[in-house]
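G., the chain you wanted modeled:
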Amino acid sequence: QEVVELFKIMHTLIDQGKSIIFITHKLKEVVECSDRITVIRGGKVIKTTTPKQASMNQLATMMVGREVNLKVHKNKAKPGTVVLDVRNLRVLSSSGQIAVDDISFEVRSGEILGIAGVQGNGQTELVKSLTGLMPVLEGEIYIDGQNVTRFSPRKITEIGTAHIPEDRQKDGLVLASPITENLVLSTYYQKPFAKGMVLQDQMILDNSVELVKKFDVRTPTATNLVSTLSGGNQQKVIVAREFSRPIKLLIASQPTRGLDVGSIEYIHSRVIEKRDDGCAVLLVSTELDEVMQLSDRIAVMYRGKILDILDSESISKELLGLLMAGVIPSEKQRKQARTKKQEIVVT
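Predicted structure as tokens:
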């Protein structure tokens, strides 16, 4: 709703004779509000076109330099046993206000539960409490049947949890350190990267070279500072580190924020791959398209509460938008959403 209002304001300014330069990674937005589109890649102008002359797929290809698949392809989920079990969780924000207000949900192996909501409705505090970065006020958290409510971040990591943080530079990486060290932040004290108190530099380097190649991290060498990488490649370093060890649970918060379409496609495919390998995935995102395409079920957060948990196949963007705004849809609206979704699938 806020995006729609922004576009209305922009068109009002255009009607008044103003000029607007609109810079974004989001193809739908640039197609919707632009008269002319200039694609820049690697600091150079690739082409100037118009929304009528170029499709979103063509624009994506220009942006990345190769063909990009904008749609997420995934098989139907095969949920197994409960991996993450959250019971009556309450968490305070850093300012001492209730941020997560008595919520309960489960995530099973082989499924993706998406958490949708406007930024600032408790998602950040939820993820931090699940990963041990923020204390729990009330309630319990179970991972694979084990009560981890008071566990430290390291203990939660060691029992098989991977975390893609909301802020990759603040919580996911040590920018002043090389890629090699960032790739072992979760395991540097374990074999084969350490013998007692002594780090095994060659093993750490060999591991980094392998992961840089496997996860397509674009860098001259694995010893470069991680701060020299683009946002997309920094995100790939985090994904490489978290996915290269055995995990039961993946908690991904805003995994594609600020990334180009090529990096988004890559991250999405890796998340689906983990789900298909039997991992339980909790996806938190403010991007409606991302939540709807990746998730098997969607929980909507509003003011710290979960308003509803719905099957992704029976929810429309409009219905999701209403819930995100705190509006409980009527049964008639829900039925219309299911009908509309079925029509789109048939088409």
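The CA atoms of residues 37 and 49 lie 5 Å apart.

Shout if anything looks off.
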